[in-house]
Write a structure and sequence with these properties.
By secondary structure, this protein is mainly alpha-helical. It has 1 helix and no strands.
Length: 56
C-alpha cells in the first residue's frame, strides 16, 4: 500500500498540519487579548492625562 518513505511523508504532512492548526488557534485567542489590553492601557493613560490637565 505505502512505501516507508510515503508513510514518513504522510506523517510529516500530518505533523505540520497539526502544528499549523494549533498555532492558528493560539494566535486567534492571543491577538484579541493583546489588542484589548492595549486599548485599556491607552484609556488609562488618557484619563491620567486629563486628571493632570484639570489639576493644573
Amino acid at each position: 500500500m505505502f512505501d516507508f518513505q510515503q508513510y514518513l511523508g504522510f506523517l510529516a504532512f500530518l505533523t505540520i498540519l497539526t502544528i499549523g492548526f494549533w498555532l492558528m488557534i493560539f494566535l486567534i485567542s492571543f491577538i484579541p487579548y493583546w489588542i484589548g489590553g492595549a486599548l485599556i492601557e491607552n484609556m488609562k493613560l488618557k484619563r491620567e492625562a486629563k486628571k493632570k490637565e484639570k489639576g493644573n
